[in-house]
């Protein structure tokens, strides 16, 4: 999903100012945009946003209140301060993810990407963490109109609390997140491993908390095992994949130590599941690192040799100077010790696998119950229907 108008609207939020311009310029320079079907997204209407958000919150986004208390009520303070064009920005982000979901739902695409989306912290009536509208949730709700089960996967460094809360009691959406989790790190305490869902949703929420400076190899070991188990247990009909770039070691958030190659391996695994997949952006506070990551992930999503065709160095283009001093296409890890002990990672992985085993058992029990039910009567043939009508009209003579 892209157009210059959409790029401009995404750039209205100061935290990501210029990020989208860098990304699309780099993708152009790497000859990737020519291999994509680019769709210009339309703005969502308030009625679309209302599929998840409250009317009061929508009104606050449309006409932000004047007084501090009201702004605080809707979370429109600090990192979610009001800015000119806020409502148009929110409708642009929501509209792009909804349109991408619609493409998947009608089979017009196998993979749809909205790098301007992935705003996973916004709740029903409150903005949070640079997220004013929860396009992840809106798109997932849209996909549920077509697909019975949606697997939501989140590799942003922050836990997707807004999405988790939205589907916490649902067995139609399985939320899987790997994130840094420690006291004081947003949105702690949300994201704890014991948050596994409630009611019908018990077992359908999987949190894998990670300690500081997790590196590619450690992350990959957990991601592969947990993602494969989620697909096996839940049998999703489609996937929503939030790819925040702030888990990179090159990001100023600096809590994890992943590289573009590490996250590419995760996305490669998701794409290999061959399910309709909605790929979303998210955090990412170093424009050049984010552009590197999402360019690499776009190539992974395209497949067919696109990854191999990427140049090893950033090609000359209008934003070339932003990529110094290394100019490598891929980011490098920081030289820091990974605080994730192997036994702690194994424990986190095993806990996630145990939760997913609950989901697997529920699915098998539901299938067994369905098999025990007497079969529904087969539809009558045309001849049988005619005979039945004749009997009904003539009466049944004993
Ligand atoms: Zn984040």
TrEMBL record:
Top-rank taxon: Eukaryota
Alphabetized UniProt keyword annotations: Chromatin regulator, Hydrolase, Metal-binding, Nucleus, Transcription, Transcription regulation
Question: Where substrate is bound, by residue?
Answer: 79, 129, 285
Query: Which InterPro entries does the entry link to?
Result: HDAC_I/II, HDACs, His_deacetylse_dom, His_deacetylse_dom_sf, Ureohydrolase_dom_sf
Q: Which GO terms describe its cellular component?
A: histone deacetylase complex
Q: Which residues form the active site?
A: 121 (proton acceptor)
Name this protein carries in UniProt? Histone deacetylase
Organism this protein belongs to: Tribonema minus
| SUPFAM superfamilies associated with the record | Arginase/deacetylase
The molecular function terms in GO held by this entry are: histone deacetylase activity, hydrolytic mechanism; metal ion binding
Compartments, as annotated in UniProt = Nucleus
* Domain Histone deacetylase, first and last residues per copy: 21-300
| EC numbers | 3.5.1.98
Cite the binding residues for a divalent metal cation. 156, 158, 246
Pfam families listed in its UniProt record: Hist_deacetyl
Please list the GO biological process terms of this entry: epigenetic regulation of gene expression
Report the enzyme's class at the first EC level: hydrolase
Q: Which family does it belong to?
A: Belongs to the histone deacetylase family. HD Type 1 subfamily.
> What reaction is this protein's catalytic activity?
N(6)-acetyl-L-lysyl-[histone] + H2O = L-lysyl-[histone] + acetate
């Amino acid at each position: 999903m892209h157009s210059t108008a959409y790029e401009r609207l995404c750039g209205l939020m100061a935290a990501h100012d210029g990020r989208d311009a860098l990304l699309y310029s780099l993708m152009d320079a790497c000859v990737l945009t020519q291999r994509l079907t680019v769709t210009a997204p339309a703005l969502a209407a308030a009625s679309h946003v209302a599929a998840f958000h409250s009317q009061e919150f929508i009104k606050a986004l449309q006409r932000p209140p004047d007084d501090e208390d009201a702004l605080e009520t809707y979370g429109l303070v600090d990192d979610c301060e009001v800015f000119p064009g806020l409502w148009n920005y929110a409708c642009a982000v929501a509209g792009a993810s909804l349109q991408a979901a619609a493409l998947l739902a009608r089979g017009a695409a196998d993979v749809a990407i909205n790098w301007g989306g992935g705003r996973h912290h916004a709740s029903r009536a409150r903005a949070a963490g640079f997220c004013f509208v929860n396009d992840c949730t809106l798109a997932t709700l849209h996909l549920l109109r077509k697909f019975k089960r949606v697997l939501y996967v989140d590799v942003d460094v922050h836990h997707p609390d807004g999405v988790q809360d939205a589907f916490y009691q649902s067995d139609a959406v399985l939320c899987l997140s790997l994130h840094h989790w420690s006291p004081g790190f947003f949105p702690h305490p949300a994201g704890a491993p014991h948050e596994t869902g409630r009611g019908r949703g018990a077992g359908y929420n999987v949190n894998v908390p990670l300690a500081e400076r997790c590196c590619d190899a450690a992350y990959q070991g957990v991601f592969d095992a947990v993602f494969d188990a989620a697909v096996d247990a839940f049998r999703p009909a489609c996937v929503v994949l939030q790819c925040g770039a702030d888990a990179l070691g090159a990001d100023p958030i600096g809590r994890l130590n992943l590289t573009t190659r590490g996250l590419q391996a995760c996305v490669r695994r998701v794409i290999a599941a061959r399910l309709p997949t909605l790929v979303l952006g998210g955090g990412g506070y170093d424009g050049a690192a984010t552009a590197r990551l999402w360019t690499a992930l776009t190539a992974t999503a395209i497949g067919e040799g696109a990854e191999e065709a990427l140049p090893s160095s950033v090609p000359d283009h209008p934003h070339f100077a932003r990529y110094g001093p290394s100019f490598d296409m891929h980011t490098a890890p920081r030289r820091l010790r990974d605080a994730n002990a192997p036994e702690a990672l194994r424990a986190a992985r095993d806990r996630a696998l145990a939760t997913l085993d609950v989901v697997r058992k529920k699915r098998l029990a539901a299938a067994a119950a369905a098999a025990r039910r007497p079969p529904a009567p087969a539809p009558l043939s045309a001849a049988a229907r005619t005979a039945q009508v004749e009997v009904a009209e003539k009466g049944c003579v004993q």
